Amino acid sequence: MSAEPLTLLLNVLAIAVVCFVLHNIAVSAFVTLLSTRFLKLQVKSRKITLWFLATLPWFSAFSTAAYFVYAANGLSPFESASSMDHWHHIDSFSWLSWHGAVTTCALGFLAYVISSRLLKLLSHQHEIKSLMALSRKLDNNTFEIDSSDAAAFTAGFISPKCFVTKGMREQISETEYHIVMQHELAHANKRDPFKKWLFALLAAFFIPNIKQRLVLHMTLAMEQDADNAVVSNTTSSLDIAGTLVKVARLNATGSTLKNTDMVANFGADVLEQRVYFLLGQLSLKPVNHMLMMLLAIAAFFLCLTSVDSIHHFIETFTSH
Question: Which residues face 41 on adjacent strands?
Answer without folding.
Answer: 285
